[in-house]
Amino acid sequence: MIEAYKFPLWILSSQAKNADEYKTITIYTEAVSFWMFRLSTSISDHLNSLRSAPVEICLEFEQEMLLVRDSVIYANAEPFTGEIELTVEQNVITILIPFSLVGLFSAEDNLAEKLIMKVILTGFNVLLRKSGKEQMTNAFIDQVIDETLSPSNAKMILFSDSSSNPLLDNRDLVPVRYLMDTEKELIADHLISMLNPAKPIPEMIEDTKEKNKLCMTIVGTLLVKVEEKLSVFRADKLLEYLVRLNESLIFQSEYNSLLLPSKIACYSNFEAEVKDVKKKDGKIVPTSLAVRGIIEFVAASPTFGSEPVNLDQIDEIIALMNEAIFWANLADSIELLGNDPKVGLLPSGRIGVLDNFYELVLKPFNNSRAETEVHYAIHPDKQEDKFDEGDVFVNNEVTDAAFKSEWGVSFTTITALFGSLQMLGMQNGSSFMSMKESDFFAEVPKLFRKPVDEQELKIAINLFILDKRKSIKKAPDGFIAKDILPWRYNRALSFVRRPVIRITYPGDDQPTYHWGFRHVLRSYMQLTALISSGKIKVAKEGQIESKVISIFVKHSGKKYRNEVFKWLKENTNLRLIDHEVTITENGHLVADINYGDVDIMAIDDVNKIIYSIECKNTASARVVHEMKTELDSYIGQNGEGGHILKHSKRHKWLSTHQDQLVKYVDKSDDYRIVSFVLSSNVIPVVYLAKNKAALPIRSFRDLVRNGFETIARDLNQ
Question: How large is the average pLDDT for residues 651-673?
Answer without folding.
Answer: 93
